[in-house]
Amino acid sequence: MKIADWLTRGAQSQEHADYLKALRLDKIKVLSTQLILLILLFVLWELSARHGIVDTFIFSQPSRIWQLIMERAADGSIYHHTWITLMETVIGFCLGTLLGTFVAILIWASPFFGRVLDPYLVVLNSMPKVALGPFFIVTMGTGYISIIAMAVAISLIITTIVVYGSFQEVDPNYLKLTQTWGATRWQSFRKVVLPASIPSIISTLKVNVGLSWVGVIVGEFLVAKAGLGYLIIYGFQVFNLTLVMTSLLIISVAATIMYQAVAFLEKKLMQSRRT
């Protein structure tokens, strides 16, 4: 019987190893295909520009973008503008997520307060946050603070709504069980509600990556004297659309890296929950 059990466990281990290998191969195939499509896109873009199919004045071309990146990297200006925008985005992202989660916790802690604020949250969520730009400029000045405030304003309400909704979706039977054992509302939140809402909070982080970039770039459009958003506006003003395309490309790369960092955090948190 022991030999049979050993053979069964060996077969299961081999099947598990084969399954993990298949997952790795599938991941490699997906990444390879994505990379090939990206390279193909840039090659077609360059060839189209050189043969006059694409208007290089409007869409530029990869070779010009690369040349401009090298020139701006040599004088250090591209690092300066990228760092400013990245700093504003990370700060706005963290503040928007933390404040939104904190407000959601406050609303959950008081059901009466939640019912009172519910219509106001709906109205604030439907309001175009860009319209708040002039208000931030007048009250906070034309520096970094108003730009960060724009990023926070865009991500704060959606974070509050999504996280509070995830708190509400927790099975009430779990809460009744903890209350039966004498747990306070805060203990029930810490032991049951918050752990159950971690996936929703992580999903909110992913959404906030894009929202924070939008808020910062819009803020830089309005008031900045440095940053990638400033370069986009400046490029349009002097009809240097290669600078515009370069800034958009850098934003895309930085936003992708930031999103992948959040996805990595999600993976680690999910692994720790399973162990």
Keywords:
mainly alpha; flat; 275 residues; 0% strand; MetI-like fold
Rough shape? Answer: flat
Largest sheet: none
Cα end-to-end separation = 30 Å
Number of helices: 11
Task: Give average pLDDT, whole number.
Answer: 84
Oligomer: single chain
The total tally of domains equals 2
The overall strand count is 0
Unreliable spans are: none
Main structural class: mainly alpha
User: Could you give the order of the helices and strands?
Assistant: HHHHHHHHHHH
CATH class of the largest domain: Mainly Alpha
Query: What would you report as the Rg, rounded to the nearest angstrom?
Result: 25 Å
Relative strand content: under 5%
CATH architecture verdict of the largest domain: Orthogonal Bundle
Helix content bin: over 70%
In CATH, what is the homologous superfamily of the largest domain? MetI-like
Could you explain how this protein is built, in words?
It is built from eleven helices and no strands. The chain has two domains: 54 residues; 215 residues, MetI-like fold (Orthogonal Bundle). The model has no long low-confidence stretch (mean pLDDT 84). It is an all-alpha fold.
